[in-house]
């Protein structure tokens, strides 16, 4: 135990002037482990507070990994949203199972995001955890970035309140090449037909499905 504590002191002293991606910092994190002491987490928080840009985000990611997820979230709330900050917030909130807060995060930032991967992640986490409204908004944003995204089209077709809107999404989804579509094709066609039948102006199309 004493040897380990001595090693922590040495690495902490050496890491004090290093960047968050330095090998010395990684060794120190390894010694602390994912349940670091309050003093260790304060050390990481201080490094994050003194850093800027991507270095600050990386220090906050280290803080999250070391068990300081709540502290990292508090710091991230003071930073202007960007892809890197949103991805880290999403990682932390998902780990903490705070899915309502994931929905709130998505509602606040998704319309300004241009990263397809980040928008898709927000949408998927919201959808998988029953946060329908933010999931719909995120998938609509994804369709602005990727107009033929099959997951977005299918989810919006399944969850839209309006039958005419459902039919529109189903029609676009089912027009995609078969290899791009996800899920059971015959059930999707049944749902499309039902949506058309409920839309008085497109009843004949529904009868043909």
Give Rg in angstroms: 23 Å
Fraction of residues in β-strands: under 5%
Low-confidence stretches: none
Our count of helices gives 13
Mean pLDDT rating:
91
Listing every helix as H and every strand as E from the N terminus to the C terminus, the arrangement reads HHHHHHHHHHHHH
Structure description:
With 209 residues, the chain is mainly α. The chain is 72% helix and 0% strand. It is built from 13 helices and no strands. Helix 1 (2-15) packs antiparallel against helix 2 (23-32), helix 9 runs antiparallel to helix 10 (150-159) and helix 10 (150-159) runs antiparallel to helix 11. The longest helix has 14 residues, at 2-15. The chain is elongated, with a radius of gyration of 23 Å. The N and C termini lie far apart (71 Å). The model has no long low-confidence stretch (mean pLDDT 91).
Concise structural overview:
This protein has 209 residues and is mainly α. It has helices at residues 2-15, 23-32, 38-50, 53-65, 69-76, 83-95, 99-109, 116-128, 132-145, 150-159, 163-174, 185-198, 203-208.
Question: How are the SSEs ordered, and which strands pair?
Answer:
Elements lengths: L1 H14 L7 H10 L5 H13 L2 H13 L3 H8 L6 H13 L3 H11 L6 H13 L3 H14 L4 H10 L3 H12 L10 H14 L4 H6 L1
Helix pairs in contact: 1-2, 3-4, 4-5, 4-6, 5-6, 6-7, 6-8, 7-8, 7-9, 8-9, 9-10, 10-11, 11-12
């Amino acid at each position: 135990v004493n040897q380990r504590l001595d090693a922590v002191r040495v690495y902490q002293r050496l890491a004090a002037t290093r960047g968050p991606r330095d090998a010395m910092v990684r060794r120190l994190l390894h010694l602390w482990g994912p349940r670091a002491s309050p003093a260790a987490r304060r050390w990481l928080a201080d490094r994050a507070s003194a850093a800027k840009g991507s270095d600050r985000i990386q220090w906050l990611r280290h803080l999250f990994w070391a068990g300081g997820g709540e502290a990292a979230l508090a710091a991230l709330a003071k930073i202007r949203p960007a892809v890197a900050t949103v991805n880290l917030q999403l990682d932390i909130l998902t780990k903490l199972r705070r899915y309502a807060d994931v929905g709130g995060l998505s509602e606040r930032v998704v319309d300004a995001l241009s990263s397809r991967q980040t928008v898709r992640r927000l949408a998927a986490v919201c959808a998988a955890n029953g946060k329908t409204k933010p999931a719909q908004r995120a998938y609509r944003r994804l369709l602005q970035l990727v107009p033929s995204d099959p997951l977005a089209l299918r989810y919006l077709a399944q969850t839209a309140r309006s039958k005419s809107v459902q039919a529109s999404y189903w029609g676009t989804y089912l027009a995609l090449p078969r290899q791009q579509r996800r899920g059971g094709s015959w059930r999707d066609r049944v749902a499309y037909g039902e949506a058309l039948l409920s839309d008085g102006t497109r009843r004949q199309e529904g009868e043909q499905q």
